[in-house]
Amino acid sequence: MSRLTVPKTYKLYIGGAFPRSESGRVREVLGADGEFLANAAVASRKDARDAVVAARGGHAKWAGATAYNRGQVLYRIAEVLEGRRAQFVEEIRAQQGVSAAVAGAQVDEAIDRWVWYAGWTDKYSQVAGGANPVAGPFFNLSVPEPTGLVAVVAPQEDALLGLVSAIAPILVSGNSVVVLPSEAYPLSAISLAEVLATSDVPAGVVNILTGPVADVAPWLASHADVNALDLAGAGAYDWPAFEAAAADTLKRVVRPGGPGAVAPSLERILAFTEMKTVWHTQSLR
Amino acid sequence: MTGTSIEAPHERALALLGGQPDDATLRRYLHGLPGVDAVGLEARAADLGTRSIKTTSKAWALDTIVKLIDLTTLEGADTPGKVRSLTAKALAPDPGDRQTPRTAAVCVYGDMVGIAVESLGAAHGDPDDGLVAVAAVATAFPSGRASLEIKLADTRDAVAAGADEIDMVIDRGAFLSGRYGQVFDEIVAVKDACRRADGTSASLKVILETGELMSYDNVRRASWLSILAGGDFIKTSTGKVAPAATLPVTLLMLEVVRDWHTATGGRIGVKPAGGIRTSKDAIKYLVTVAETVGEDWLQPHLFRFGASSLLNDVLLQRQKLRTGHYSGPDYVTID
């Protein structure tokens, strides 16, 4: 007698929990061979609003953690991802219709990217900041600080690597993110959420909304409580409209192909930081 | 709220009770009230909370909520500066939109009444005239654990400083021990202390502190007791005890107010306070009021929200309706 199949429900990831879409909508995700894989939640603008509230709530704890601690947490994501490698390989293979070897290479690359960025948490501020020479009796110091809450349209062409490459550098400095993962391959994003939820990433720091980018992104772009908009994967959409929607508020916008694109780079970490400069009087001798 | 006569309700109460308000008479009356169907009450409240209020109705609801707020600061760390910024916010809740209505009142500790009156200046007065009233908590708020002389002095002090409304706490210890006569007499005495030299009187809100009353039956009894003793408003909580205001408790108190109105024609106000932080929650209360006692009650002399953080959330929602995009906490004041 064969066992009953236990299909997985892919829901959203908001505030450290896995709620269904407020709209109640789901869509069928089909494999490369047209076979039914799973139902994925279709996020609405209300979900986007809830995610922003959750991300704002999670921001202070993440930004307030020591750089060393953030590095440990990011490294832990790589560890947990490594342990679930087989699941991710299988999911990518089914969704993208690639060979197990190609899918495996994508997962390995994603794991390595977490490790690479984990190492940067306690180093990027020395590289980007430092003491400035000034013509006066002052210490003058510049340090990069997280921009705050970043809304991200992740690269659309693959299931996992693009998403990881987009959000890992944003998390390095202590930002929280609301991310719209690949519209065509949404399943790996929610499996990644399960990894994040068990890697000591504080609730609300990463929020993942699967669904139509064109419907949800404008609401995130115009939201006054979003501090930066990363359009890394929005090239195929009407991204100038997203940028225009963001123009009503003081918001940093990184265009498709902007600083460092999504290849691993220090520039991408610094694209989501703000420089704080402090003047401090020298003691009088 | 000014100039209400205190004798009339007292006589009505004596007629209803059929005797002097001593422990035995009150006990006979209050324990003769029908018991509360807790399951039915909570189901009714949950049902009223499911209404969908959108677009123009939502805009109306948001403005109504602002007009019904007692903007409150009741912290040990309050300073004159904090009270001045509170009154400034009550007068112009959203400086970016001058169409925003003023709140009904500011609610402060007794020693801050003078500061609040002074900083409101010409804008101090009746919320019906578009002005802002000053409410003061008194009677050893929030515990109520002081002698009657202290409580009355506390009240007179706030009234003399210019308070339009007094929020008193009942002695929950006495109430729960069944010393109803003592609670009744205290409310009557505080009501008397609300009188000003010119014969007018400050409005009296009676705080039941429902979080400490243990049962819905007790909430109903305390509501009746407060109304019989002459309270102008019944208020759920001090905000210092959890749970504070809940929708079922407020519904229950509104039902008492409705029954009193049916029996005597008198109109008593209700003020849920504490724990109402979002517009969504506040709109549920508006629906409950309209469905229980009628839309007449949605005016500052008959319904209030005791709140501080609620106002910011309402302002964010108003900005969303005005601009079409979601707003954020950077666009309202930090209180």
Automatic annotation (TrEMBL), chain A:
Q: Taking every annotated instance into account, which residue ranges of this chain make up the domain Aldehyde dehydrogenase?
A: 22-253
Keywords of the record: Oxidoreductase
State the Pfam families in the record: Aldedh
Q: What Gene3D superfamilies has UniProt attached to this entry?
A: Aldehyde Dehydrogenase, Chain A, domain 1
Domain of life, per lineage: Bacteria
Name of the protein in its database record = Aldehyde dehydrogenase family protein
SUPFAM superfamilies, A to Z = ALDH-like
Name the species this protein comes from: Agromyces seonyuensis
Q: Which InterPro entries match?
A: Ald_DH/histidinol_DH (IPR016161), Ald_DH_N (IPR016162), Aldehyde_DH_dom (IPR015590)
Its ancestry begins with: Bacteria, Bacillati, Actinomycetota, Actinomycetes, Micrococcales
Extract the GO molecular function terms from the UniProt entry: oxidoreductase activity
Automatic annotation (TrEMBL), chain B:
Keywords tagged on the record:
Lyase, Schiff base
- Has UniProt tagged this entry with the keyword Lyase? yes
This protein's pathway: Carbohydrate degradation; 2-deoxy-D-ribose 1-phosphate degradation; D-glyceraldehyde 3-phosphate and acetaldehyde from 2-deoxy-alpha-D-ribose 1-phosphate: step 2/2
Which SMART domains did the record assign? DeoC
Keyword Ribonucleoprotein listed: no
Spell out the reaction equation it catalyses. 2-deoxy-D-ribose 5-phosphate = D-glyceraldehyde 3-phosphate + acetaldehyde
Biological processes, Gene Ontology terms:
carbohydrate catabolic process; deoxyribonucleotide catabolic process
| One Pfam family matching this protein | DeoC
Question: GO CC annotation: what is one?
Answer: cytoplasm
Domain of life (superkingdom):
Bacteria
Top class in the EC scheme = lyase
Q: What is its EC number?
A: 4.1.2.4
GO MF annotation terms: deoxyribose-phosphate aldolase activity
The record ties this protein, via PANTHER family, to: DEOXYRIBOSE-PHOSPHATE ALDOLASE
The text of the family note is: Belongs to the DeoC/FbaB aldolase family. DeoC type 2 subfamily.
Q: What is this protein called?
A: Deoxyribose-phosphate aldolase
Q: Which organism is it from?
A: Agromyces seonyuensis
